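== Sequence and structure of one protein ==
=== Format: two labelled lines per protein ===
==== Data for this protein ====
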Amino acid sequence: MIYGIGTDICDLRRLRATLDRRGERFAEKVLGPHELAVFRVRRARVEARGLSFLGTRFAAKEAFSKAIGLGMRMPMTWRACEIVNAASGKPEILLHGELAEWFAAKGLRAHVTVTDETEYAAAFVVVETI
């Protein structure tokens, strides 16, 4: 049974402006440890790839927060929710700490998809009861 659905779109031009103003501190606020490592590698190779990665993760976390009905309030935090890739490349949601405990206690499972284009990144999340 579907518990919630969330979607979000991120304007990469606004994200770029935020990175220009705040530097990597913004990425460190939004990304978890696994994501931050990938972001740094991608950004070092090609700036636009790092920006797209950050945008898809930002959008996915916003979509997830909507799907679980909490928005960005406890136990939902930027860094407690990570979007990681399975070996196949499929994006998956990895939760930490209080958010992981809350999610498990409710008996939920999440599915996420992300996409990006030159100026936008988007994500769609479906959360279901197990």
Observations:
- The longest helix spans residues 47-67.
- The chain has five helices and five strands.
- Helices lie at 12-22, 24-30, 33-45, 47-67, 97-105.
- Residues 65 and 71 are 5 Å apart (CA to CA).
